[in-house]
Amino acid sequence: MTALTVDLPPLRRDRRVQAWILSAGISQAGDVAWYVGLAWSATQVTSPAGAGLVMGIGALPRALVLLWGGALADRLDARRTMIVANLGRILVLAGAAAVTALSGISLALLLVVAVLFGVVDALYAPASGTMPRRMVHPDDLVKLAAGTQLANRLAVFAGAPLGGFLVAHGGLAAVMVVNAISFAVIAVALLWVVRPRLPQVRSEGTSVRADLRAGFGYLRRDLPARTLVIAFFGLNLCVGPVLAVGLVQRTSAAGWGAGALGLFQACSGLLAAAGAVLAMRWKPSNLARAGLLALILQAAGCAAIGVVPRAGVFVAMGVIGFTAGLASAQLSAAFQQTIAPAYLGRTSSIVSLSDDALMPVAMTAFGALISVAGIPFACGLLGAVFALLMIWSASRLDGVA
């Protein structure tokens, strides 16, 4: 049974999909508020190095568990896995809030919570990646991805100030309670509203280890799937360092101040929302190729950050944000359409590894490149590599919708 043989309502009247997007947005807002509260609390109880450890340590268990989580997502019922993961998050937060009320905040507590969250995220994320294909017609995947993208952008705008307000007036415990409520919202939605209409195609391996081997074997055999994964790796590893390191270094070196950095980021976020809105209304004939070619403009924006004046940085960040909102929706839909259903969880987890396992290396290497060659050269080089990778990927995906 496929989406083409099931009578599904249009997205504007699809309460299940709307509940999925809304609840995911609420959960994302809770996450953003939590990370703001966690970062602030870490700076109050430990040194800058300790605070950095708190914010980064969760990536280690997430990276270690992600592939296993992807295999489980292809073996087990994804909706139930997500419900259990959310309940696990709620228990972690409730327990941490109780400890905070009894003995206050400590570095040990923050490290334990960060590690546990990393593990649970590694189980939740691959399972959630298998849901869109079971919810809507293939032609509606772009709109679903764009709606999710827009909800996530709005969640960042709402969650960041919410986290600051909560930690200032109620402490970290208040942030924990609000984030636990946000997880409860999505768990309730998954229990009673968000139910996939299409059956899940399960993996056929005899064990998790066999499924992992089969997942990498699938990427070796399937050219479009392998090309998309490589493109996503390049996207993550090229843009992340420029925005997290290059933009900060350029702003500081030019003496524009922290306020300008915040305005640059806000400009990118607003234009990303606009790009997601456009993605809801425009569907090119070849989603993967259109998304990859749009990212060439994003690569130009990354290169420009290193050399243009302040007004030009606003333009560059606007281009980066707009193309991110547009291309993310198109490429997410292309990914869902291209990857074989039985491999969605494993392939999603492999893509996520670029953020969790390779991003710290990329950030460090990019910072070292700036130290040796300067900001303009570093941003220009990474932008050029990014553009060439997108052109190469697009040329290999001419036949992929």
Descriptive report:
By secondary structure, this protein is an all-alpha fold. The chain has 2 domains: 3-202, MFS general substrate transporter like domains (Growth Hormone, Chain: A, Up-down Bundle); 214-396, Up-down Bundle (Growth Hormone, Chain: A). The protein is 82% helix and 0% strand. It has helices at residues 15-45, 48-57, 59-75, 78-103, 107-129, 141-169, 171-192, 208-221, 223-254, 258-281, 287-305, 310-338, 344-373, 375-396. The longest helix has 32 residues, at 223-254. The two termini are 21 Å apart.
Features:
401 residues, mainly alpha, Growth Hormone, Chain: A, 2 domains, 82% helix, globular
Helix content: over 70%
Task: Based on the coordinates given, report the CATH architecture of the largest domain.
Answer: Up-down Bundle
Rough outline: globular
* Uncertain runs: none
* CATH homologous superfamily designation of the largest domain: MFS general substrate transporter like domains
Taken as a percent bin, the fraction of beta residues is under 5%
The fold-level CATH name of the largest domain is: Growth Hormone, Chain: A
Note the gap between the termini: 21 Å
Major sheet: size, sense and barrel closure? none
Tell me the name of the CATH class of the largest domain: Mainly Alpha
Task: Tally the helices.
Answer: 14
What's the overall average pLDDT, rounded?
88
Total count of domains: 2
Gyration radius, to the nearest Å? 21 Å
